[in-house]
Amino acid sequence: GKGRGRQVIAVARTADVVIMMLDATKGDVQRKLLEKELESVGIRLNRSKPNIYFKPKKGGGLSYNSMVPLTMCSEKLVQLILHEYKIFNAEVLFREDSTPDDFIDVIVGNRVYMPCLYVYNKVDQISIEEVDRLAHEPHSVVISCGMKLNLDFLLERLWEYLALICLYTKKRGERPDFSDAIIMRRGASVEHVCHRIHRTLASQFKYALVWGTSTKFDPQRVGLTHIMEHEDVIQIVKK
């Protein structure tokens, strides 16, 4: 909350991924502090949204069900939590074993769930055992900016966490243009690629030829709904 702390943290709520640059020589002190700060403004790191169905109603009391045995929550506890929030009529269905905190997150409803990468810098100043320990922590990457160690691996992991793919275009009778890539989200279809190249291209689209891992053979003739994969090459044929 010092300086413009709150505003800086508010920006993180709209981000696609959070990178925590940590000093490897200081252990986990910084990490715990930052996690706590982000947690307090409703950002949940490396966690998926709790699979709990919750719907407030006008009347009829509390309807409570669970599809799995619950070890951390009970009907009594759910009722107490709802009473705290002045909710007396609601439908609740637990589809997984969740904690009371998860249930509160669902009630409040303004929580953001996002991936986070913990990047430990200055690994050249600590023992090899400590580097090994940090590198094996989940969602962690060890680097040294001073000695330019492991930076390419950091880029690879970041690419993975952002769920981005890289596509190349090709003109008829020419080689693919590998110097200029199109960056798309994972799961993008040929139609998305058409819109990215030019907004009128999808309406003039006849078919596309695709080379790469998303096809059964090279080149494969595909339609607008074909899902592209990383480093595919596409040639679009217009009507």
TrEMBL record:
Stored Pfam families: MMR_HSR1_Xtn (PF16897), TGS (PF02824)
Gene3D superfamilies the UniProt entry points to: 3.10.20.30, 6.10.140.1070
Stretches assigned to the TGS domain: 163-238
CDD domains: DRG, TGS_DRG2
Annotated gene: LOC121843557
InterPro entries: Beta-grasp_dom_sf, DRG, G_OBG, GTP-binding_2, P-loop_NTPase, TGS, TGS-like
Keyword annotations from UniProtKB, A to Z: GTP-binding, Nucleotide-binding
Keyword Cell cycle recorded: no
Species the sequence originates in: Oncorhynchus tshawytscha (Chinook salmon)
Example of a GO MF term: GTP binding
Chain ranges of the OBG-type G domain: 1-163
Protein name: Developmentally regulated GTP binding protein 2
